[in-house]
Here is the input.
Amino acid sequence: MVAQLLEGGPLAQRIKETLRGEVAALRQRGVVPRLVAVYFQGDPESLVYVRKQRKACEALGICCDSRELPVDSTETGVAEVIQELNDDPTVTGILLQTPLPPQIVGSRMQARIDPWKDVEGLHPVNMGGLLYGTYRVAPCTAVGAVELLRTIRPSLAGLEVTIVGHSKTVGKPLALLLLESALEAPTPTICHVATGDLAAHTRRADVLLVAVGKPELIRGPMIKPGAVVVDIGINLVEVLDAAGRPVLDEKGNPRRRLVGDVESAGAREVASWLTPVPGGVGPVTVMILLRNTVECAKALAELGRTTRSASVPTPSGSV
Ligand code: NAP
Here is the structure.
């Protein structure tokens, strides 16, 4: 069997088109979605990510600013910035860009963000909504993975699903999202570092979702023939030559490439569907973040908490 590739591009494009109309309608009412990304100095990848985010937002008419904070910021200092953004009626969404410096506890800072402006769906109130099935926004990657899966398996009733990884941002929300509709829900198993025999659980999965952050942890023999495999992992690894030595680029630096948590060549021989890395869950995740941003703006507008203005703010910021 050669697995078909479950690419995220087409779904991401459909979400984008819907959002384009929604943002235009909001702007006509004088409501301009405005996302502010808070990030820390010293991590070049954060900067790249924030710039990409800004481009994606602006393509849809969403304003996107950023606040760069010193890497030695205290939690009090970060909380003050968050409070300022919470209080600003022109800001409709706040994103706390990871990685955070070690002295900053992510969950404490997430809880400081106004839940109505929590575009990542990580505030305890929004996480609680996920548990109760009443959420407005939910963690982007988990939602993206489930929506991508549902494009080929609209109903998961009767299926065994194994989730590898139980992080607060991906694995746990995934399980809750899958259990949402009683009639179409699968039977999930959640694996983590203390799981005794990982392969025993992955091998009986009709659908395998992997979010671990360990390059190619899941190999072909660990996959049930015909399974759908959703590889959420994104890992940067060095390219090696046939002798196992790092391949260098023209500047003499090790060449690197992106791989998932699933060894794709082996998985493609066994699975029926496999999400590629890159190009699978990633593009959908980006669109879910934008959709959450629009949802937050809509909700704040309904609450009368946005600034209605005839003059539409133009983007500005430190990036
Ligand atoms: P994380 O917070 O580090 O969580 C990793 C999870 O994997 C933890 O629950 C950990 O268990 C578990 N784990 C680690 N080693 C394991 C093993 N050998 N067997 C079973 N479980 C194991 O990472 P994350 O934020 O969930 O992200 C996971 C991956 O998804 C990363 O590669 C990340 O880059 C990627 N990601 C992709 C997207 C996207 O858009 N595609 C978005 C976000 C993240 P313990 O907690 O018990 O240690």
Remarks:
- The first strand starts at residue 4 and ends at 5.
- The chain has two domains: 28-119+283-302, 140-275.
